[in-house]
Amino acid sequence: MTGAAVALPHFEALADLPRELKADGSVVTAADRAVESAIRDVLAAARPTDAVLGEEEGQTGASGRRWIIDPIDGTALFVAGDNRWLILIALEEDGEVTTAVAAHPAQGSLWWATRGGGAFEGRIVGGRVVAETPVHVSAGADTVAGSRLGVVPEEWNRELVAPLKELTPALHWPIHPALMIARGDLDLAVQTGGQIWDFASTSLIVREAGGAYSGIDGRPQPGPGASVYARSDALRQAALEAMAVVSGSR
């Protein structure tokens, strides 16, 4: 809740929000830095011996327990006034993500999961989580053709996802496609780039909802590069095979 409380006032006053470009050309704002700083303050008070890795401040500390923070996932959406941006927080223990939270603060929704404990969706009302609901992926055929596909970002001029476009159309996503898969609203999603903080939280939520996740190279752990989410492991494999023509893994 702390991150949302810091981010929302910035989102409501975008005209006055300082922003700049990083070395990689992506946008960063004062809101990104303020949200990460606020989350770090909470973690420092509650878990002072844990390590923290954040997109804006890098890693601090060394421990078998590491918090992974993306203070504003989708900063380009944020500065455009698009409410689909998220705050992502995950806990990694001995190299495995065990706890995950994904919030759409501007939409008032929260998603979370624990390893072996399932995945859930709730609403944020008055700073409290209400309407807690277990989520689960949908059933269906394990073929890319006919599947409900989401791509992050919503661009089709990317060579990586072109083979999927030939098999099934991409759908507009009102919330992050990984969360839509967890809730049964999509079957397959590709995020065409990112770092560990982009995937740590959403990968666990999808898996705990009964789905599958991997990097484009098939690695099971979240990390840099493109990633695939699917409602089944067989569908994930089918998507990787379809994209192998471009990725060079075939």
TrEMBL record:
Gene3D superfamilies to which the protein is assigned, alphabetical: 3.40.190.80, Fructose-1,6-Bisphosphatase, subunit A, domain 1
PANTHER family the record matches: INOSITOL MONOPHOSPHATASE, INOSITOL-1-MONOPHOSPHATASE-RELATED
Protein name: Inositol monophosphatase
